[in-house]
Amino acid sequence: MSPPAPPQVSVVMPVFNGARFLERAIESVRHQTLPGWELLAVDDHSADESGSLLARAAAADARVRVFRHPANLGQSAARNTALANARGELVAYLDQDDEFYPDHLARAWDWRAKGEVLVFRYDLVDDMPGSPAFGTVVTYDPAAKFDRMLAETITTPLGVVHHRRLLDRVGGFDEDLGRFRGDDEDGDLWQRFARAGAVFLFVPAASGRYHVRADSFSRTRPPGPAGPPVPGRPERVGVGGTTYPVRVPDGDGDAWLVGEVFDGHAFGGIPRWCLRPSAVVADVGASAGLFAVYFKLHYDSAAVVHCFEPDPSQFALLAGNVRPFPGVVSYPFGLARADGEVDLFLHPHAPGATAVGEAPVPPAVGRTRVRVRDAAVAWDELGLGEVDVLKVDALGCEVDVLGVLGPRARAARVVVAEFRTPADRSRIGAALPGHELFGTRVRESGPGLVTYVRSDLMAPAPAHGVASSSAGMESAVQPLPPPAPVARPRRSAPGRTTARGCCSRRTTTTSTRRAGPPCVPATCSRR
Question: Where is the composition biased (Low complexity) (predicted)?
Fold first, then answer.
């Protein structure tokens, strides 16, 4: 007699004092239209009738497998026990008080080749007596929050089915998480899947019913111990009468950042006619995310901005700053020549001016190891293709990044890059042979910004005069009106000199090279 075929889908169910819900949950699995499932129920040392109910279920259906913990170890440990014994190609999750729709596992099996992590909608059922919404059902779609995947938990386990092989790459649930409110062990695993490059597919179908109860574990978990204070210094930025809170690095050397970006319009020289509707932007070296916020506010609120930032402290600011803006996706790694880890050198006065090399940071006060990805591989995995804007601000590594990206960078419609010396600027231009210099922003000391536009997007225009800057660089000058002023309380920047430059220093600027729709001349008169 041949051995039974392995199950197609393993369903993971942690159980703790869930006797009053278990029959409903188990029956929702038994009524699946896909017969090739196994249910791995782990009794996490329940004190009610859960154990006997699970035993009866296992006796009635051999596909139900029951495991018991000798002590209460928590949801993460219970799920890990199930995962360690799972045999299916796919893994699905069902909590003891929820239920699957009958076709859920069959649909997941049909979609398995299209993504490594399938994310489903699910229906929220208000089971809280006395609630004004008691008994109502509302569909929740995690796809609406896809851009916040790395910043928050966008779905409960009910909405996730993934290939079991992913666990070999990232491990299971973190058993140190999940005991306190907001300490989400499930969101942590989904984020590790994403950081490992797993392909996520948002399926336009509901997996089942999530019962919202006042006494559920997710609602009754105690608050965690007080964490560290929120990093960074608060500021407000915006357009017109609408402002948004942001936080910037807390060092004296970074006091100029908000003024430089939002008052000085450091990134205001991007030609609008080059941008397609719902522009796609790649921000390499995103720091605290001010460029992403500026682009969403000043250029295209529907843009999709991909932010790459390896510094953990900067990434924490970035994740918080872009949270109010749909369409901004943040990645906690840098782009480099190859996958791996590198030393990040820390600036003594400007936390936002960390650098991979020691040269731009005089003298470094320490270093930390950060993750980097092969720029070309990461670009292709994300399917970025032709982006509208490629912004590279990697403190001395701009040319390396452009070189690794190769044809991907040359396909970008607009490239904005930081440079530190005239030689750097020349090397950036050489890396973009199919682009034309459009504008340059120069300071007397510190880095500048250069903007290139793809040649096929440049319409013929009469030449303009050339002005020489005090830094010995040349570019054409065309006075053009700035955008609407930003509604933000103004504050003067301290006059400390930093590796990135400061608005307290005199700034020599130049603007666009050719005529076109209104763009912002890169000027900064703050002293």
Answer: 494-515
Neighbours of 172 (CB within 10 A): 17
Three-state SS at 157? helix
CATH entry, 9-220, from 1.10.3810.10, 2.60.40.1080, 3.90.550.10, 3.30.70.600 = 3.90.550.10
DSSP summary character for residue 413:
S
Q: Does domain 233-341+370-509 have CATH number 3.40.50.150?
A: yes
Q: What's the gap between Cα 235 and its chain centre? A: 22
> What whole-number distance in Å separates Cα of residue 193 and Cα of residue 80?
16
Burial (Cβ within 10 Å: 0-12, 13-18, ≥19) of residue 66: buried
Mean per-residue pLDDT, 366-371: 74
Give, as one character, the DSSP assignment of residue 270. -
pTM above 0.70, yes or no: no
Q: Which residue has the tokens 């949270």?
A: 323
Burial class (CB in 10 A: 0-12, 13-18, 19+), 460: exposed
The pLDDT of residue 221: 53
Q: Would you kindly state where each structural domain of the chain is located, as residue ranges? A: 9-220, 233-341+370-509
Please give the Cα distance from 422 to 394 (Å, whole number). 16
